[in-house]
Structures are given as C-alpha cells and as structure tokens.
Amino acid sequence: MSERILVCVAWPYANGPLHLGHVAGAYLPADIFARYHRTKGNEVAMVSGSDQHGTPITIKADLEGVKPAEIVARYHRVFLENWRKLGITWDLFTTTGTPNHAEVTHDIFLTLLKKGYIYKDTVSQPFCPKCQRYLPDRYVEGTCPFCAYTNARGDQCETCGKPLNPVDLIGIHCRICGSTPVFQNSEHFFLKLSAFNAQLLEWVKKQTHWRSNVLNFTQRYLEDGLKDRAITRDIEWGVSVPVAGFENKRIYVWFEAVIGYLSATREWAANQGKPEKWRDFWQKPDTKIYNFIGKDNIPFHCIIWPAMLMGYGGLNLPYDVPANEFLTIEGRKISTSRNWAVWLPDYLSRYDPDPLRYLLSINMPETSDTDFSWREFVRRNNDELVATYGNLAHRVLTFTYKNFDGAIPTPGQFDDDDKSILDLAKKTVETVDGLLYKCVFKESVRTAMSLAQQTNRYLDRKSPWRVIKQDWQASGTALYVAITVLSALSIILYPFLPFSSQKLWQYLGFKDAVQNGGWKLTTPPAGQKLQMPQPLFIKLDEKQVLEEESKRLGQPS
Ligand SMILES: [Zn+2]
Ligand SMILES: [Zn+2]
Predict the structure, then answer these.
(1) 3-state SS class at 289
(2) What's the whole-number mean pLDDT along residues 273-298?
(3) At the N or C end, where does the chain have fewer CB atoms within 10 A?
(4) Predicted confidence (pLDDT) at residue 557 exceeds the cutoff of 70
C-alpha cells in the first residue's frame, strides 16, 4: 500500500549563505526522509524555497546599499547550487516572490478576515526619530523579558525561542542608528490566535507520535495562553495587504512564509501539468504532512500555522513536526556575526558531500543539542566511512573482480555463519525501515553501520582471500554473502549517503538508480558482471584539515 507524503521544509531567509546548523536542523533530515519514502515507492513531494521577505532581507540590502531583490537573487542562486552539490532533492525549491504565492496568501488572508479570525486594531509601533521610519521586527533590539538575553530582536528571542513584539523589549534601540525609538500608533491587522487556544491544545495532546521535546514545548506554550498577533507591518518589501487603505503596509513575513508550503505545492502541481494535484496532498485525509524545522521555529509550525489552517478550514494539519535542536561548532554556539560557523558553500568547495551528511546524521541534534568538530569529522570519515564501510566494500569487490572473472560468484551451501549474517542484513533493512518511518535518524545510521562492522568480522572469520587457495567454492560463497550485504547497505545508507550508495550499487553491477531497488534486501544474481570498483571514500589528513579550518573559524571573513 503506497502512502502519500508531503515533506515541507523551513524557508531559509535569502540574506546570506547557509551554515551547518541549518543543514543539520532541517535540510538534511528532510532529504533523508524524502529519499527513504521514494525508495519505498511512496508518493512524495518535498517543497520549500527562499524566503525573500522580512526585515532580515531589507537590513542586509540597507547595509549594502542595494535593492532587496538583488540580495534575494544572489542567495537564491547560492542555495540552488548548494542543494545540488549536497544532494538535497527538492521536488520544488521556489521563492516567496512568485505571483502564485501572493495569490494563495491573499486568499488565506481574506478568508480568515471574512470569518472574523483577522481583525483591525491600532498598535503602538516603534518609530526612530533619527531615521524617520518605523522599526519593525529585526530593526530593533533589546533585552528579552523572558530570559534576559541582551540582543533579542523585535520578532523573536534567539536564545529562549519566544516570539516577541517590539514593545516587550527592555532597553529597546534602533539597530541602524542606536537611538531609542518612540512609539507611535499605526493601524494593523491581527490574527486572532486566542480563538484557537483550546482547539490547538486538544489537537496537540493527541500528537503522541511527536518528539517529546516538540510536544512539551508546544503544550507549555499553549497552556500559558495565546495572545493575538499583528500580521501586518509598516514596510514596503513583502506581500501586499489586499485591503484598501493598506497600500503602504505589507503582510508580516511569518504569516506568509508558512503559507509557502501550500503555495509551493500548488506551484509544483502546476509544473507537473496537473494543477489540481495539490489537493491530494492538502485535502485527502490519508496524506501525511511533515514539517522539518529547527527548534526556534516550533511556535510558528506547531501553533500559528495550524491555527491559520484551522481557521481557513478544509486543509490538512501537519502530521508531524520533527524539529531538531541546535548544532554547536567546536563546543560553542553558532554565531554568524562572529563568524563562528561552518558555511555550507565553503564546506562544499573543499570536501565531498557524503562525509558531512554522514557526520550530521550520526550526530544529529534530534532530541538534544550536538556538537560539530573538525576532529570528529576527520575521525568519522577515516575510521567509519573509509576503514569500516569503504574498506568492506573495496576489499570484497576488488578481490571478487580479480578472482571471479569480474562477476558475482555462484554460492555453494550456506553454513550457519553465512545464514546468520544474511539474516542480520535482512533484519537491519527492516529495523532501519521502522526507525526512518518514525523520523529517528541517528539510530538508523548507527544500525546500518553496525551491519558493516559485523560483516567485516564475518569476513575475518571466513577469510576468503586465504581460503581461495584450497577451496575456491568456499571463498566464492563468503564473497557472495558479503556482496549481498553490500547491496543491503547501499540501499539503507542511500538516504544518508546518496552519492557513495549509487556508486556502490553500480559496482555491484546494477545499471539503474539505487532507489529503484526498493526498500528490501536485494540478492544480486550470481554471474552478474561487476563494475571495476574504486574506493568509495577518501582518507583525510587530520593535521592538514585542522590547520586549514582553524584559519577560518571565528576569523573575520
Ligand atoms: Zn529570551
Ligand atoms: Zn534609527
């Protein structure tokens, strides 16, 4: 029975390159999940795009003295290039700047307005007397009233994750000139979140399959009580407000960015020449929608977006929101202003994608923060990818290629040792299936690697390279068993290590894409011609990597 899965991934602000925190937080787990479901033969759409609105973009444009559209175009190109190199397989990666997105946003806005879930009110907005302008969201900074973080922004505190309004900030100041703003009245639209408090709480309590950190955070948040939020801003860059008298205002970026999941699905469907296809994903109740995000986005995806969907009516709510915690770098919190980050374009210009995908998978910040260090990167590459998995594949394939006419040997009778390792391979395929289905990534990749370790031990016991001199058949049987395990590994590691899995699949003599093999233990046919194998991974020089990288991290770029 095939399933329908919609993978919705956080929209990155197109105001700068992405770093490893973003990759580990949302993009890599989403891609692993989408690849897994595609291999299972399920109907998958994975969508997102560049978030081109909001003050993060205009602040960057102001700093460079260019138009916001120029910033957006630049980083959207960088994103697309990075996705290709890292192997993030979008069905659509669009932007929030399309006419389609504006149209879908207006429809949701006007429907909620008509139903009374959006209302007009006067709000006191910070206005900078020196800059002579309103200061929405990130144009102001101050101390967070909840956790006392001193550089909290006007839209959200990046330390405790609580959404904020500028008026909440203690010691508020203009980020452009440092002046203390005055508050002036301005008319805005509000989303009546308070109307959904009870309904959301009831819904969230039923989501027992959610990660406990996501569930607990959301439940506590709802129990504290929801306040209505202003969803328009005094700015010129963004989706227009479809109401007369609001020509100089724009829809708040957060209100419209989450609508992007819906508008992107519609755009994707239209691109397929099936403009009504989006309805399968958003209106059929058997579709499962997953939102892959970092933990700072939990309030928007577990509360605000579901409230908007409840108010609009007739559309599927998220099935799961597997939000990840944060990645630290060399033991310290990522800080883009201090350049304490590993930038994705930099990484991809120096190393292969699979070793990063591997480390960020086996060390994924699923339920607590985890740390990235270059020492661990080199160690896991050399000890696990090269010495355990890569070496298993390489010694089996080169020896078979040389001694069995470049083809998979015909096995003799299996003994208990053969049977038990084949059985382990079959069980591992099933175990990883069950784990990935529940978005448990770290344990999946550990389980897969443990099969590689067990198979190395099996080969040490069987020693086909020594046995071949006396018993050609026994050697061929052991190699056949190892080759069968390798085919299992290429499939279960494919969502994590797509590039090396595809190579291995071809070395095993298969001609198609590894994901066509399906999520099962495929027994490669005896006699199938192998392809001349090459090493799957390259050993890294620890000293050289550490020296190189220490010149970059935390240094002015
Ligand atoms: Zn805070
Ligand atoms: Zn100012």
Answers:
(1) strand
(2) 97
(3) N
(4) no
Average pLDDT, rounded, for the chain: 96
In DSSP terms, which residues pair with 79 in a beta bridge?
none
Measured between alpha carbons, how far is 430 from 425 in angstroms, rounded to an integer? 9
**What gap in Å lies between CA 308 and CA 269, rounded to an integer?**
22
pLDDT band at 160 (very low <50, low <70, confident <90, very high): confident
* Residues 184-212 pLDDT 10s: 999 999 999 999 999 999 999 999 999 99
The two three-digit tokens of residue 344, written as one number: 């994705």
Which own/partner pairs from 162-167 qualify as long-range (CB within 8 Å, at least 24 positions apart)?
A: 162/299, 163/229, 163/299, 163/300, 165/229, 165/230, 166/125, 166/126, 166/135, 166/136, 166/137, 166/140, 167/124, 167/126
Q: Give the closest residue to 495 by CA, choosing from 435, 544, 537, 555.
A: 435
Neighbours of 380 (CB within 10 A): 18
d(CA 40, CA 363) in angstroms, rounded, equals 25
- Taking CA atoms, 84 is separated from 12, 80, 119, 269, in Å, by 16, 6, 43, 22
Instruction: Please classify residue 409 by burial: count the beta carbons closer than 10 Å to its beta carbon, then call 0-12 exposed, 13-18 middle and 19+ buried.
Output: buried
3-class secondary structure, 415: coil
Using a CB cutoff of 5 Å, list residues around ligand 2, an ion: 128, 130-131, 174, 176-177, 179
Separation CA 358–CA 203 (nearest Å): 35
Helix, strand, coil percentages (3-state) for the chain, rounded to 5, are 50, 15, 35
Report which of 397, 354, 380 is spatially closest to residue 486, judged by C-alpha positions: 397
Handedness of CA 73, 79, 80, 81 (dihedral sign): positive
Handedness of CA 101, 107, 113, 115 (dihedral sign): negative
Among 30-44, 134-148, 252-266, which stretch is predicted with the lowest mean pLDDT? 134-148
User: Beta partners for 308?
Assistant: none
Cα 178 to averaged position of ligand 2 atoms, centre (Å): 6
Whole-number Å distance, alpha carbon 175 to ligand 2 midpoint, is 7
Averaged pLDDT for residues 337-355 = 95
Using DSSP's 3-state secondary structure scheme, residue 360 falls into helix
What spacing in Å lies between the alpha carbon of 180 and ligand 2's midpoint? 8
H-run or E-run covering 383:
none
The answer to whether the beta carbons of residues 72 and 57 sit under 8 Å apart is yes
Q: How far apart are CA 229 and CA 114, in angstroms?
A: 17
Kindly report the pTM of this predicted structure.
Answer: 0.95
User: Tokens at residue 141, please?
Assistant: 């900074």
- DSSP three-state, residue 51: strand
- Return d(Cα 374, Cα 371) in angstroms, integer: 10
Of 283, 255, 300, 318, the closest CA to residue 118 belongs to 255
Distance, in Å, from the CA atom of 362 to the CA atom of 317, rounded to the nearest integer, reads: 30
What the block records as the tokens of 246 is 């609001």
Give ion ligand 1 contacts, CB < 5 A. Answer: 144, 146-147, 149, 157, 159-160
- Non-local (6+) Cβ contacts of 243 within 8 A are 113, 189
- The edge-to-edge listing of strands for the beta sheet with 92-95 is 92-95, 43-50, 4-9, 288-292
